[in-house]
Design a protein that fits this description.
Oligomer: single chain
Structural class: alpha+beta
Largest sheet: 5 strands, antiparallel
Strand content: 15-25%
Helix content: 25-40%
Radius of gyration: 15 Å
Shape: globular
Distance between the termini: 50 Å
Length: 148
Amino acid sequence: MTSSVVTDDDLTGALDRLVDRVHGAEFAVVLSPDGLPLGGSQQVEGELAEQLSGVVAGLIALGLAATRTCEGGGLRQVVVQMARAFLFVATIPNGTILTVRIAGDDVKVGDMAYEVALFVGQAERHLPIRLEPASSATIGTPGPHRQR
């Protein structure tokens, strides 16, 4: 049995389906471990992907600092709650990063959290490549705990 090659259209389709499944979801983007946009839902244009790249890099850095300080294991997700929107940033086991925005007064944040976790769990179907983050022991993996 041979495995199929996943194309950009497949990733865009998977991200579009993620956005379509949750009321209020506006866009989804997958970034490489170093922040380069790998794909996005149809609503994402180049300028937005570039802006998200910088924002997500900062959020990941803060999340990693929190994991080191709080000794809670590897970073899995950062959620930013704004007055009218939420931004979900989730690490994928292959090193990539999923970012999803959901907005509106009647959004179901729990539904989005579930769909993000589901996408991350099935990411190898959409992202069969193996990308290693700069420090694989700090993103998405438990890693060793510091001794006091």
